[in-house]
Amino acid sequence: MLKTRILTVMVVLPLFAAALFYLPNGGWGLFLMPLMLAGAWEWGALAGWRRAARVIYMGAMALAGMGLWYVSGGVAADSRAMNLALFAVSLVFWLIVAALWMAKGWRVRSPWVMTVAGLVLLLPLWWALVVMQTRPLQLLALMAIVWISDSAAYLCGRLWGRCKLAATISPGKTWEGVFGALVGVALYYGLASAAGLVQSSILQGAAGFAIFIFLAVLGIEGDLFESWIKRTAGVKDSGVLFPGHGGVLDRIDALTASMPAAALLLHTAS
Question: Quick one: 109 exposed, middle or buried, by C-beta within 10 A (0-12, 13-18, 19+)?
Fold first, then answer.
């Protein structure tokens, strides 16, 4: 399994990086669209929908994405009010709705609720990645927050994990892992800042450090939320698109919570 996971990363990561740095903004958006639609397909499966409903949901997600692009006039950075509203909705969902969803142990199966929740998970993430591609190196640095957080949490949890973080949601996650993740992100911020990877003024100094930690915490919540949805559906992985890694939702769970928040903060400061 480890060999399969490494091979998948060796194929996917260079392709992703090449698209991020070399595609124009429109091409980048189109490159990401199939991943968003695959996520919609997987979300429909977790919601228990039949194949026809999942196809319709993918179509609705594609239309919503094209609608965002049309309203923006084809230039993501030119629609400040729309962007702020979309990213604010995402942040409210993660700070209030998703937190209550997990705290109360809601096992939601309502098609309408799941439809809206899937849109709030996937559409703001796709649009945030499109908007922030104007500074590709900074976007990559921000996305690396969740990768470093996840790796540090896994390592520290394996070595020292004793206190369960949320045993009913994800038994393998521990508070020691969370502490390790935050320490890892703190160290990463120091290195990223020294290397000039954080280019926006809001990401400098104490404010930038706080934002990096905040995004790491949101990423952990995104991971937990998808784990709860999978537990409700009675499955281990959201899909099988990435060998050794599961589905699209398994790979972007932390990003769904953190990247729209990052885009909101950058837009607010600009």
Answer: exposed
Question: H or E segment at 166?
Answer: none
DSSP state of 150: H
Q: What is the pTM of this model?
A: 0.93
Cα separation, 249 vs 247, whole angstroms: 6
> Would you say how long the chain is, in residues?
270
CB count within 10 Å of CB 119 equals 17
Domain containing 28 equals 2-269
Total domains in the chain come to: 1
* CB contact at 8 A, 106 and 96: no
Taking the chain (270 residues) in runs of 10, the rounded mean pLDDT of each run is: 68 89 93 94 94 96 91 66 93 97 92 95 96 93 94 93 93 95 97 88 93 97 95 85 73 95 89
